[in-house]
Amino acid sequence: MTKIAMSGAAGQLGTVLRAALPARGYRLRSAGGSKLPVPLCDDEEVMHGDLRDPAVVDRLLHGVDVLIHMAGTSVERPLPEIIENNLRALYEVYEGARRNGVRRVVFASSNHAIGMYPVDARLATDCEFRPDGFYGLSKMWGEGLARLYWDKHGIESVCIRIGSCVARPAEPRHLATWLGHEDLLHLIEQSITVPDLGFMVVWGVSANTRSYWDNSGAARLGYRPNQNAEGYAAEILSRPDPLDAIARQYQGGGFASIDFTPPAQRLGGSDR
Ligand code: NAI
Ligand code: 15L
Questions:
Q1: Which H/E stretch holds residue 236?
Q2: Which of 151, 185, 245, 271 has its CA 20 to 30 A from that of 98?
Q3: Residue nearest to atom 44 of ligand 1 (CA)
Q4: Quick check: CB of 11 below 6 Å from ligand 1?
Q5: Do the Cβ atoms of 213 and 172 come closer than 8 Å?
Q6: 238 alpha carbon to ligand 1 midpoint, in Å?
Q7: How far, in Å, from the CA of 9 to the mean position of ligand 2?
Q8: Catalytic residue (choose from 117, 135, 149, 250)
Q9: Ligand 2, from 86, 161, 162: best to mutate by most atoms within 8 Å of Cβ?
């Protein structure tokens, strides 16, 4: 039976996944950050600690086949915090994967690695990165690290550029970016089980009619999403859009308008 470890288990997505994976027959070791998670069933092993510490990483990864790496700073924060949790801790995780013979890492990347694309662009996974802040930049670095450890050390990675993973889409942007919980589970299960993936990048998005992203590459992963935010469109569009005028222009939404220099205030004052 495949032995799975999951970091960030006490976070939003970790909580959804922990509740489902053991029931689907996986042996799961779940790691919280600062607090020990309470096991959800007899088959779930729990632990906690800071992943910048190699000893914590070794406890997480000992005897593990696949790591689902959900831990990290998950929003825009000052650069030093992002460097610690999303660069330094991720480096320790991949080095730990080498030491412990972990064959695959499922890396929670983010749409914010490309968040400065305008909302009318439709993107494939080989598009250029256009991060919308230091958080998005850290995911770009994470995908690069994943690529390095496949090319140089043979550790497989699936980098999932997650859109907005919430139980129900709640705002107009989610009509494009929503990843429903059922689709999340299906995507993670495919990422665990499909053989010989090497290195790949997929969009973590449901089958949304208004999606910004072309996920045809995910066919190799056997990912067939069933959820579509469109069913919520009428209700969502009857309410005011919470995003400001800048956020509405970019795929990253509100992250794009954080610390944004308006074109008129830029050197030369041009709109590029
Ligand atoms: P979250 O913020 O709820 O959970 C992240 C967890 O990581 C926290 O519980 C925290 O304790 C842990 N953590 C942070 N730094 C750590 C460290 N140095 N050592 C050990 N644990 C540490 O995040 P959420 O929403 O569950 O997201 C999970 C992952 O998916 C994150 O990497 C996030 O960037 C990514 N993601 C999530 C999206 C979403 O819609 N929720 C969208 C795009 C990406
Ligand atoms: C993310 O990367 C964040 O972790 C999550 O909190 C949401 O903001 C999501 O992106 C999104 O873009 O909706």
A1: helix 233-237
A2: 185
A3: 110
A4: yes
A5: no
A6: 31
A7: 17
A8: 135
A9: 162
Domains in the chain (CATH in brackets) are 3-260 (3.40.50.720)
Contact (Cβ atoms closer than 8 angstroms) between residue 181 and residue 128: no
Q: How many CB atoms lie within 10 A of CB 256?
A: 27
Beta pairing, strands 66-69 & 44-48: unpaired
Find the distance separating the first CA and the last CA of the chain, reported in whole Å: 53
> What are the pLDDT tens digits along the chain (272 aa)?
889 999 999 999 999 999 999 999 899 999 999 999 999 988 899 999 999 999 999 999 999 999 999 999 999 999 999 999 999 999 999 999 999 999 999 999 999 999 999 999 999 999 999 999 999 999 999 999 999 999 999 999 999 999 999 999 999 999 999 999 999 999 999 999 999 999 999 999 999 999 999 999 899 999 999 999 999 999 999 999 999 999 999 999 999 999 999 999 998 865 55
Rounded to two decimals, the pTM is: 0.97
Using the Cα atoms of residue 7, residue 8, residue 13 and residue 14 in order, give the sign of their dihedral: positive
Residue 45 tokens, joined: 């092993």
Is 135 a catalytic site residue? yes
- Ligand 1 contact, 50 CB (< 6 A): yes
Distance 87 CA to ligand 2 centre (A): 18
| Cα–chain center distance at 5 | 16
